[in-house]
Amino acid sequence: MKHGKKYIAAKAMVESKIYDVAEAVALVKKVKYAKFDGSLDVNIKTAADPKYNDQAIRGTVVLPHGTGKTVIVAAFVGDDRVDEAKSAGATIVGNTELIRSIEAGNIDFDVLVTTPDMIKDLAKVAKILGPKGIMPTPKTGTITTDLQGTIQEIQKGRIEFKLDKTGNIHAGVGRLSFDDAQLIENVNALLTAIEALKPAAIKNKLFKKVTLAPTMGP
Q: Where are the domains of the chain?
């Protein structure tokens, strides 16, 4: 793969050594070359083997300083909870009409939340939502009785993380325009949350390698 001059120049600033989080965050800001406000991406190589169910890792974390992105939340709820979901901040709220909209391919939201009594009705669109990673599940806290708390938490900066097929976890933890201290706290919050879900089957360290990168750059 050929890289441009900007990438090569940026890559030359990266030494072959282990950086602490503060050093890595500062360096990411130096090596970024995108003209837009990119994100700080965290890439984690774990010791977990995704082939085994007892080594699966999936969860959520509320980043102390959010992601810097506006998150559009949809709520699939019964008629008796429509007003509650709207007042909590959900942009799209409904049930039967929302199902029809999803079936028509209109998925104008980033996260979908629902209540335990309504999840069965979403089964008919599970094949549409599942591949997009937005089917509500208990593990991601998107099936909830606390609509207000969940919706507000998501909008404040709650993100989901999960192990991919190669045993890695990738997540964006904020904009590069954030202060270094804010990004450091967000990175540490993510790492702490993942470490807390370390499968019992893994006897050695969970993290093999952690790298930080800008949207465009090494």
A: 12-67+158-214, 73-156
Closest CA to 163 of 82, 76, 53: 53
CATH 3.40.50.790 fits 73-156, yes or no: yes
Bridge partners of 93? 75
pLDDT tens digits, 92-141: 999 999 999 999 999 999 999 999 999 999 999 999 999 998 999 988 88
Residue 76, beta-bridge partner list: 94, 114
CATH numeric code, 12-67+158-214: 3.30.190.20
What digits encode the pLDDT tens for the residues 139-154? 888 999 999 999 999 9
With tokens 């090494």, the residue in question is 218
User: Using CA atoms, how far apart are residues 153 and 74, in angstroms rounded to an integer?
Assistant: 14
